[in-house]
Amino acid sequence: MSGGDPGRTALVVVDLQNDFCAGPAVLARSGKDPAALERAVVGCVRAVALARERGVEVVFVRFAGDPEHQGPSWRSRDRALGKRPKCLDGSWGARFHAVVPAPDERVFTKRACFDAFLSDGFEAYLGARGVSHLVLAGLYADVCVDSTARTAFQKGFHVTVLADCTTALHLPYDSLLRFMRVVYGARTTTTDDPRAWTAPVDRPEEETCAPSPDRTRAARPD
Q1: Bridge-based pairing state of the strands 57-64 and 107-111
Q2: How much is the pTM?
Q3: Using an 8 Å Cβ cutoff, are 166 and 140 in contact?
Q4: How far apart are CA 108 and CA 118, in angstroms?
């Protein structure tokens, strides 16, 4: 996959829905700094506006947590931890928060799963559009954003995570971003960085894999 073309980039907005963004239960889950959640929401709204201005495709991913969508392990976990289903079909909690997809922007639904690639048609749509680079925003960095980034990397997509457009729910945020950089090769940057909106340029394999003559010489014993 080659880079440098914003047309080969898509902004993927993950789970920006009321049940994850608003209400007392959300504030209780967001830890000691609920302002971090609000900053992430504001960042997502700005990222969508910038992507539209730049002609970068915006794709929305939504979560549906109805019990009929849940597998046995999901239901068992919820019973053990006292979790209630979120983002029920047709409910206020399932609606998008602070931003609404445009009529020509695609929406994909994850049915009781974290990874956007498990939603019907998501990967096929990206392939048909020639997308090679995903810019990820939304909630949460250590759950659905990470799950999507992990699969994207393994399927050959370049990954950028907008650090001002997400936040962590369970794990230290800075450590999580570093993990994504090291394991997925992700760029972690902000909406103001122009590089965020174009795919990295692939280098020929020999440039990245072949050892340089100097390094080969240095590795030989005298």
Answers
A1: parallel
A2: 0.87
A3: yes
A4: 10
Q: How many domains does the chain have?
A: 1
Within the chain, strands assigned E span 9-14, 57-64, 107-111, 133-138, 158-162, 187-189
Structure tokens belonging to residue 158: 């370049």
Give the mean pLDDT per block of 10 residues along the chain (222 residues): 65 97 71 82 98 97 97 96 94 96 98 98 97 97 98 98 96 97 98 94 60 41 38
Considering only CA atoms, which of 73, 90, 68, 79 is closest in space to residue 19? 90
Answer yes or no: is 151 within a domain: yes
* Residue 1, in any domain of the structure: no
User: Any idea what the Cα angle at residue 150 is, between residues 97 and 55, rounded to 5°?
Assistant: 50
User: Is 72 within the bounds of a domain?
Assistant: yes
Residue 49 resides in a domain: yes
Of 144, 110, 100, 107, nearest in space to 125 by CA: 107
- Length reported for the chain: 222
By residue range, what is the domain housing residue 48?
6-219
The torsion angles phi and psi of 137, rounded to 5 degrees, stand at -140, 160
Per the structure block, which two tokens stand in for 2?
Answer: 């080659």
For residue 130, the domain's CATH number is 3.40.50.850
Per-residue pLDDT at 26: 74
